[in-house]
Write a structure and sequence with these properties.
Layout lengths: L13 E3 L4 E3 L2 H11 L10 H9 L4 H12 L4 H12 L4 H16 L2 H15 L2 H20 L4 H24 L3 H14 L3 H11 L6 H20 L1 H8 L5 H22 L1
Antiparallel strand pairs: 1-2
Helix pairs in contact: 1-4, 2-3, 3-4, 4-5, 6-7, 7-8, 8-9, 8-10, 9-10
């Protein structure tokens, strides 16, 4: 993951472990908070970050304000808002929208929050972390379901569980574990006949029981995806390797392999 939002660059970056990301400016810090607050741990705003803000960004005023909040053990949410307000990277309306999003997230059930975090990781391509959060969401959902007396309410949550299991199957497919993905879909199918299950089966090996119209829609999506991949810069870069001399080919292939290995290790 990388960002290019620098106005005034620090001499030394601040590393955000949860996102495997170096940030170099106040603007990048604001962007990370605004876009990925769900993925930031409770200890994200700590003395190290405050010192970086003071020394590297020369923002003693913001650092002093955050130090006060940290000493009072204020929530991350309040300190996130402080950073956004001081940075002036986002408008007042955008900051208000962010505040409302934080409030809504706080009110959600534990299993909902875990699922949201898993989905955020999935969208970033951090599949191992996504799988962990989806599994934790299912565990929390099961705990909630066991406490319910209403059969109708339990059935609603069972359906949600199969949605989460479908999400895990998607993660496993992205990790090239197709058999594992199929297995989790089979287990989900025994709980509830979720339409997503058949669609995912069809996408994996064409085994899903779908109407001809549904197959046509998915086939078009597959074709569009393939076309986008062929047009992508990554594909063109890989393809161009084979039109170079042997030495250049080996050098670029080596660099490409290192990049692919790095991306793979981030996933698994």
């Amino acid at each position: 993951m990388s960002l290019i939002l620098v106005r005034q660059q620090a001499k030394n970056p601040y590393y955000i472990e949860q996102l495997d990301l170096n940030i170099w400016s106040e603007q990048e810090l604001s962007y990370v908070i605004y876009q990925y607050s769900l993925l930031l741990s409770d200890s994200f705003i700590n003395e190290d970050l405050i010192m970086w803000i003071e020394k590297e960004l020369d923002r003693g005023d913001l650092a002093a304000e955050l130090k006060k909040s940290l000493d009072k053990q204020d929530s991350n949410e309040g300190m996130f808002l402080t950073i956004l307000q001081y940075s002036s990277y986002y408008s007042a309306n955008e900051i208000n929208s962010f505040r409302e999003k934080l409030i809504l997230t706080r009110r959600r059930e534990k299993w909902e929050k875990l699922h949201m975090v898993g989905t955020a990781f999935f969208k970033l391509g951090y599949f191992r972390q996504a799988k962990e959060k989806y599994e934790a969401a299912i565990k929390a959902l099961d705990e909630t379901t066991r406490k319910l007396d209403s059969l109708a309410e339990r059935e609603v949550l069972v359906r949600r569980k199969t949605d989460f299991m479908c999400d895990i199957a998607c993660v496993m497919a992205n990790l090239f574990d197709i058999q594992g993905a199929k297995s989790i879909l089979d287990k989900a199918d025994m709980l509830y006949k979720n339409p997503r299950i058949e669609r995912l089966r069809y996408l994996m090996d064409r085994s899903g029981k779908l109407s001809e119209d549904e197959k046509l829609v998915l086939d078009r999506k597959i074709a569009d995806t393939k076309e986008n991949v062929l047009k992508s810069a990554s594909y063109r870069n890989a393809e161009s390797i084979f039109f170079k001399d042997n030495e250049s080919c080996m050098n670029e292939a080596s660099l490409l392999l290192k990049k692919l290995k790095h991306e793979y290790h981030k996933m698994v």
